[in-house]
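Risk register update: the risk of archive-format incompatibility is retired. Evidence:
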Amino acid sequence: MEPALLLDHRAVRRFDIAAALIAALFVALGVLVAVQLWALSRLSASLFDASSALDQAGRGLSMVRVLPLIGDEIARLADSIQATATSVHAEAVRVRSNIRVLAVVVGVAVALVGLVPLALIYLPFRILRMRALAKLAGRLDGPADPMLVEQLAWCALARLPFEELRQITRSPWRDLAEGRHQQLAEAELRRLGIRPPENWAAPGAGPSQHPGS
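Archived output:
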């Protein structure tokens, strides 16, 4: 049988839930980090306020440039203040933009810390398992293949918990030796989460010995 079928369907379901919780946790952490860093972009508001104040001061001074004697000096000062205001405003825009880009990058990076291992390790396992289950389900169509039934029975013997195996038969080795494979094979299918076919009957599948027998 495929290595991807070693785990029973209950264990795989628990792993699926754990993987989903891990993915959700790291996505939430990434969003939280991004939001917190994005909020830092508000620190640039003081630079915008400063640039606005400088711009207003420059405009106010430019209004008195028409005065004789001091007009030229005031004009140069007003132009200098307005140039400074423009520079401060541009710096504020750059700082805000950089902080927001950083927020997105760090948030995505935090989310990928949890998502990448799942994508590289767990997702391929789930794909292999789904393919293996689909392949096995395809072999169950129609009359039972005696070799498949026997293989499933041996897998059940190797993989079923002792208490569950004991409920099926008290002498599994004798059942296998005498060709009574069907009940063990059906138990293996149930372990994998596959319902045994209703009209499935393995040739030579006699009654197994049950705990009460």
